[in-house]
TrEMBL record:
Binding site for ATP: S44, G45, G46, V47, D48, S49, S50
Full protein name: GMP synthase (glutamine-hydrolyzing)
Annotated keywords: ATP-binding, Glutamine amidotransferase, GMP biosynthesis, Ligase, Nucleotide-binding, Purine biosynthesis
Cellular component annotations (GO), alphabetically ordered: cytosol
Function: Catalyzes the synthesis of GMP from XMP.
Length: 326
């Protein structure tokens, strides 16, 4: 049987009971596969790699080595949450790499969006490879948060399904992909049953290059910091309003606008709020946010975030605008 094909009679995991049965079954299969060997996992804090980490911790405990790379482009509190959940609560074998200076150093004066994406992707592979080499001799397996849509897309030729592609030939591990036959909604049900916090299980999609593609043009530390704070306010206010929106975040462009603050001229950045609803991400609509909510977000960002003097709401559906600005 093709192990990359979901059996036609596989029941959709929709309840905690079904999730528990899946966890028990996979934990046993993982123990069987891994034996007393060690497993390496790149842990982003996103849903897929977090669920795989929690499942493997349950199955093999400290035989799992998780590597979390903070590239300096994470959202506010995200790397801290990875440390809190996995190191403090689940007692994982977690390697935390603060590579902020490396990434931001490489990105100085790089304006072109595709160049930024390439630099961030290549640097991620380099950092992960370095960490993999440190433990390479004792590790035999690489765990990945591959899920079923990744496999279907790779069969369609849309993209390669290996989540952490690009490791050199001499660093090839056997793969361990315990959620590869699950759809995203099932991964969330399993994650919840494994005790991951709701904010992690329901985390909105976030591009690999992180805030790097929302801090438009050449990234500077001060503007990146302003973006991180503004983005946290947008997410907090929309969460508090109890709205169900697919993706909502902030963008800070690399030009400035005139304003007035405490009676003095300000010449600071604008902040753009981007919200979209979509079913398949091929097209997207912009939700009609309540005016009072938009005003509250604007008031908070302009009062709380240094160097932001103006807030705009992006009304552009996809097409013609893409979800991300870069
Ligand atoms: N900052 C990071 N630190 C460690 N690993 C990372 C990081 N960013 C990405 N990865 C690894 O690369 C994989 C692919 O990242 P991508 O951004 O495409 O997320 P994804 O497929 O949605 O998975 P996830 O939900 O786990 O983030 C992740 O599953 C994780 O293994």
């Amino acid at each position: 049987m093709d192990s990359n094909k979901r059996p036609g009679d596989m029941v959709r995991i929709t309840t905690p009971e079904l999730a528990q049965a899946f966890i028990d079954e996979q934990a046993a299969a993982v123990r069987e596969q891994i034996g007393d060997k060690k497993v390496l996992l790149a842990l982003s804090g996103g849903v897929d790699s977090s669920v795989v980490a929690a499942l493997l911790i349950k199955a093999i405990g400290k035989q799992l080595i998780c590597v979390h790379v903070n590239h300096g482009l994470m959202r506010k509190g995200e790397s801290e949450q990875v440390i809190d959940v996995f190191k403090n609560q689940l007692d994982a074998n977690l390697v935390y790499v603060d590579a902020t200076d490396r990434f931001l150093g490489k990105l100085v004066d790089v304006e072109e969006p595709e160049a930024k994406r390439k630099i961030i992707g290549a640097e991620f592979i380099r950092v992960f490879e370095e960490e993999a080499r440190k433990v390479g001799n004792e590790v035999s397996f690489l765990a990945q948060g591959t899920i079923y849509p990744d496999i279907l897309e790779s069969q369609d030729g849309v993209k390669a399904h290996h989540n952490v592609g690009g490791l050199p030939d001499d660093l090839q591990f056997e793969l361990c992909e315990p959620v590869k036959l699950l759809y995203k909604d099932e991964v969330r049900v399993v994650g919840r049953k494994l005790g991951l916090p709701e904010s992690m299980v329901e985390r909105q999609p976030f591009p690999g290059p992180g805030l790097g593609v929302r801090c438009l043009g050449a990234i500077t530390r001060d503007r990146l910091e302003a973006l991180r704070e503004a983005d946290a306010i947008v997410r907090e206010e929309i969460d508090n309003a109890g709205l169900t929106i697919w993706q909502y975040f902030a963008v800070v462009p690399d030009f400035r606008a005139t304003g007035v603050r405490e009676g003095k001229r300000a010449y600071d950045w604008p902040c753009i709020i981007r919200c979209i609803n979509t079913v398949d991400v091929m097209t997207a609509e912009v939700p009609e946010l309540d005016w009072a909510l938009l005003k509250r977000i604007t008031a908070r960002i302009t009062a709380e975030v240094p160097r932001i003097c103006r807030v705009c709401y992006d009304l552009t559906p996809k097409p013609v605008g893409t979800v991300e600005w870069e």
